[in-house]
Amino acid sequence: MHINKDISSGSPLLGTFIKTPHHVVVEALGGSGLDYIVLDAEHSTFGISETDSCLLAAKAVGIPAFVRLTEGAPADILRVLDMGADGFLVPHVVSAEQAREVVEAAHYGAGGRGYSATNRAGNYGRVSMSEHLENASDVSVILQIEDPEGVEAIDEIAAVEGVSACFVGRADLAVAYGVYDLDAPEVTSAVESVIKACATRGVPVATFVPKMEDARAWFERGVNMVAVASEHKPMQEYFSKGSVSSVKVGDE
After folding, report:
1. Residues 174-178: contacts with CB under 8 Å, at least 24 apart
2. What is the C-alpha end-to-end distance of the chain, expressed in Å?
3. In this predicted model, what pLDDT tens digit does every residue of 86-116 receive, in sequence order?
């Protein structure tokens, strides 16, 4: 799997967030046609063991998997990459300096990622150092732009070498601007600023949408990666009160 090459190509990629920390959810999505999944360790209850088993499941069914971290701490980045994550998302990136620190922590080199190949990422020592380093260079580093400060600094952030994509978080931006509407003018203007700056630098853009039918419009607006809802939403819709009630009509 070379998801980072697919991201950099600008091809439209469709994925979803995983909120339930269990490998069966990931396994069930194998063969779904999704281009990637994101294990949401920021807004759900993923621990180390659950993240590990879900990444193993992703490898087993051949679906690229990212982990959304709680922050860009080098130790957390190292851990998920050693587990075999194809990349990660770091929330609330607001400066080029912060972006550079995240990129550095994701790659081997002086002051960067600590070396080990006796893990899933290194096929438990079965690959040479040179091969492991080559594979590790393909890690996807996705920065979430979801604060007014991040939008203001987007030109400098997008210029940082090694940034795979910028994920624009409309919900957090709406809350930050105090508008509580994802389509409010302030949010729309911020999103367009991110898309424009990233396009100028050749950096792909990602975002979240709540429904599958919303994705195409965002691809047409210049967004390359769209994450549609999470597994919770289709479960709720499939077993909605209306659907359940319609089946039960006439039972009594």
Report:
1. 176/146, 176/147, 176/148, 177/148
2. 53
3. 999 999 999 999 999 999 999 999 889 999 9
Q: Which residues are catalytic?
A: 43
Name 140's bridge partners: 87
For 229, phi and psi rounded to 5 degrees? Answer: 50, -150
Two structure tokens written together for 85: 């994550």
Can you give the length of the chain in residues? Answer: 252
- Residue range 171-202, pLDDT digits in tens: 999 999 999 999 999 999 999 999 999 999 99
- One-letter amino acid at 237 equals E
Give residue for tokens 């624009």. Answer: 168
Once rounded to an integer, what is the mean pLDDT over residues 207-221?
95
Architecture field, domain 3-241: Alpha-Beta Barrel (3.20)
